[in-house]
From TrEMBL:
Tetrapyrrole methylase domain location: 3-226
GO molecular function: precorrin-6A synthase (deacetylating) activity
Domain of life: Bacteria
Listed EC numbers: 2.1.1.152
SUPFAM superfamilies to which the protein is assigned, alphabetical: Tetrapyrrole methylase (SSF53790)
Keywords: Cobalamin biosynthesis, Methyltransferase, S-adenosyl-L-methionine, Transferase
Originating organism: Streptomyces triticiradicis
Enzyme class, spelled out: transferase
One of the protein's GO biological processes: cobalamin biosynthetic process
Pathway given in the UniProt record: Cofactor biosynthesis; adenosylcobalamin biosynthesis
Name of this protein: Precorrin-6A synthase (Deacetylating)
InterPro entries recorded: 4pyrrol_Mease, 4pyrrol_Methylase_sf, 4pyrrole_Mease_sub1, 4pyrrole_Mease_sub2, CobF
Length: 256
C-alpha cells in the first residue's frame, strides 16, 4: 500500500529538523510540493534547500503542482465556506498526485512548515481524500518545531508564565476581543496587525517574521512603544518580498 509521510520541517532553518524527520525524509521516494507562484517561489526553494541539506545523495523524485487560489476577500459568514472550498480544491490535487505519481509500494511526503498539527490543513485534507475512497494509502505524522516554539526561543522567553495558561489563536479571533482568563496569547495568521487594537493596555509583544530563515526579523518591547515600528518593518518586508509570514506573543501585565 502507498504510504504518506506528513513531515514537520520547522520554520525554515534546515537545522530545525528532528532526527525523526530526517529519517522520514530518507525513507521517502517522492516529495510533493505545491507551488504558490513566482512571488512565493522562495518557499519552494527553502524546501529544496532542506532536501539538499539532508539528502545530498539525491535518490528521490520531486513533483510540483500549482496551489489553488483561495478567496481571501471572503469575510464574516463567508469565511469558513471559502476555506472549505479551497481545502477541497487542494484535496483534489493531492488525490491526483498520490494516485498518478506514487507507486503502490512507494512512499510519498508532504513537507509542512512548522508542525502539521498547528494551523495546517494537510491532515484534514488527507482524511478527506481517504473518505472519498478513490485511492488508498496509510499516513504517518512527524511533528516539527512550530513557528510558535521558534518565536519564543529566538526571543529567549517562555511561552507561558508560572502556573498560568497560554492560548494560541488567530488575528481574526483576536479582533473579537482579548481572550478571557488568559494573559499570554500567541497570535497566528494575522494579516491585519490586530495587535494595534490593544496599544492602550499594559502589554508586551514578542513579534517575529520569516522566523528561521535568512530574512528573519524580530521585535519585542512594550506594545504601545513598538507597534508603530512593527507596522513599518512589516510593510517594508512585505513590499520587498511580496509576502510575509509572521506571528507574535502578547503578554499582558495585569495589576502592574
Amino acid at each position: 500500500m502507498r504510504k504518506i509521510h506528513v513531515i514537520g520541517i520547522g520554520a525554515g532553518d534546515p537545522d530545525q529538523l528532528t532526527l525523526q524527520a530526517v529519517k522520514a525524509l530518507r525513507s521517502t521516494d517522492v516529495f510533493f510540493i505545491l507551488d504558490k507562484g513566482e512571488v512565493k517561489s522562495d518557499l519552494v526553494q527553502l524546501r529544496r534547500d532542506i532536501l539538499d541539506a539532508h539528502m545530498p545523495e539525491g535518490g528521490y523524485r520531486l513533483v510540483e503542482a500549482r496551489d489553488p487560489d483561495r478567496d481571501r476577500t471572503a469575510g464574516g459568514p463567508a469565511y469558513s465556506p471559502a476555506v472549505g472550498d479551497w481545502r477541497s480544491a487542494r484535496a483534489a490535487i493531492y488525490e491526483r498526485l498520490i494516485a498518478e505519481e506514487l507507486g503502490e509500494d512507494e512512499s510519498g511526503a508532504f513537507l509542512v512548515w512548522g508542525d502539521p498539527a498547528l494551523y495546517d490543513s494537510t491532515l484534514g485534507i488527507l482524511e478527506e481524500i481517504l473518505d472519498r475512497g478513490a485511492v488508498a494509502f496509510s499516513y504517518e505524522v512527524i511533528p516539527g518545531i512550530s513557528s510558535v516554539s521558534a518565536l519564543v526561543a529566538r526571543h529567549r522567553t517562555g511561552l507561558n508564565r508560572v502556573a498560568r495558561p497560554v492560548q494560541i489563536t488567530t488575528g481574526r479571533r483576536l479582533a473579537e476581543g482579548f481572550p478571557d482568563g488568559v494573559d499570554d496569547v500567541v497570535v497566528m495568521l494575522d494579516a491585519h496587525q490586530t495587535f494595534r487594537r490593544y496599544t492602550d493596555e499594559d502589554i508586551d509583544i514578542y513579534w517575529g517574521a520569516y522566523i528561521g530563515t535568512p530574512d528573519e526579523i524580530l521585535v519585542s518591547g512594550p506594545l504601545a512603544e513598538v507597534a508603530p515600528f512593527i507596522e513599518d518593518v512589516r510593510a517594508e518586508a512585505r513590499e520587498r518580498k511580496g509576502w510575509i509570514m509572521d506571528t507574535y506573543l502578547l503578554r499582558r501585565n495585569p495589576g502592574l
